[in-house]
Amino acid sequence: MREQPSPVRTVALRLLLRRPRSARDLAGALARRGFPGEEIEAALEYLTDCGYLDDVAFARAYVEGRRDRLWGRRRFEGELSARGVDRRIIQEVLGPFDPAAERERACQAARRLSAEGRGARRVAAALERRGFAGAAIRAALDQLGE
Fold first, then answer.
1. What is the 3-state secondary structure (H, E, C) of 107-129?
2. Could you give the CA distance from residue 141 to residue 55 in angstroms, rounded to a whole number?
3. pLDDT, tens digit, 9 for 90 and up, residues 45-92
4. What contacts 23, CB < 8 A, 6 or more positions away?
């Protein structure tokens, strides 16, 4: 006879069906629903063993799904960290820092923002909010000034 899934496992699977989550995010959602910590840990272990819960896959999908938003590395780091992804996994997923690629994304974002009629100061502020480094922002503004 087949084992009946525990209520915490059932709720966890429903939450994962709604949207992908990191393990920490899922644990928090289950705790807010009043499940005991030991049951949550058992459910997370089960879901990880079955392949339903994978922070590396979650982080990769999160980054890939937002590539067109033209965010800087710091923004991706902050977003993933806020969703409970471990720092080592974030570094693995984002790979080695490529200043040239960061500058190119910043220039592309600056061109879009400038086309909307924003001045240089507003473009710089928007690029900073998007997580670009200072050097990338300066390069983008220099390119706009040409």
1. HHHHHHHHHCCCCHHHHHHHHHH
2. 36
3. 999 999 999 999 999 999 999 988 899 999 999 999 999 999 999 999
4. 44, 48, 53, 55, 84
Q: Which of 79, 81, 67, 59 shows the shortest CA–CA distance to 109? A: 67
Q: Which residue has the tokens 């910590």?
A: 37
What is the three-class DSSP state of 130? coil
Euclidean distance between the first and the last CA atom of the chain, given in angstroms as a whole number? 73
This prediction has a pTM of 0.85
CB of 124 within 8 A of CB of 141?
A: yes
Angstrom distance (rounded) from CA 146 to CA 143: 5
Token code pair at residue 43: 């459910």
| Phi, psi (degrees; rounded to nearest 5) at 21 | -140, 155
**Cα Rg of the chain (Å, integer):** 20
Burial class (CB in 10 A: 0-12, 13-18, 19+), 71: buried
The residues near 146 (Cβ < 8 Å, ≥ 6 apart) are: none
- Split at pLDDT 50, 70, 90, the class of 2 is low
